[in-house]
Design goal:
Length: 141
């Protein structure tokens, strides 16, 4: 069986979709092909990199990318992680499984440095749990 191609989409491809890509690669290993992109490319959020590093996953080499129509049209799963991406995501062919997992944007967190870091960790862990369940259900991991 060919490994499923999973495409995570968000508004700026800086936080949530990057963390999702990191977790899916980490948890899915060579059983999945994983990419992420955004409606816009805002650059990699250093707090997302730090939050993932704290969990043992290095995403510092990731790039913030715009949606690639070729990947979008050949993906097995297109998963949007914010309402904006869900609303603005281009139409996908019928064979593409479109899923929407809404997660709070940790980049919008306010308060002390500790509060903001805690929000990044909370969203990171929620994304990890959702991906672990998804891989178990869809990929048999």
């Amino acid at each position: 069986m060919e490994k499923p191609l999973i495409y995570f989409l968000c508004t700026g491809n800086s936080c949530r979709s990057q963390m999702a890509e990191g977790w899916a690669r980490h948890l899915g290993g060579d059983k999945v092909e994983v990419y992420s992109a955004g409606i816009e490319a805002h650059g990699l959020n250093p707090r997302a990199v730090a939050a993932m590093k704290a969990a043992g996953v290095d995403i510092s080499h990731h790039k913030s990318e715009l949606i690639d129509p070729e990947i979008l049209n050949t993906a097995d799963y297109v998963i949007t992680l914010c309402g904006d991406a869900n609303d603005k995501c281009p139409v996908t062919p019928p064979h593409v499984n479109r899923l929407h997992w809404g997660f709070e944007d940790p980049a919008r967190a306010t308060g002390t440095e500790e509060d903001i870091t805690a929000k990044f960790h909370e969203v990171r862990d929620a994304i990890k749990d959702r991906i672990a369940t998804f891989l178990k259900e869809e990929v048999g991991e």
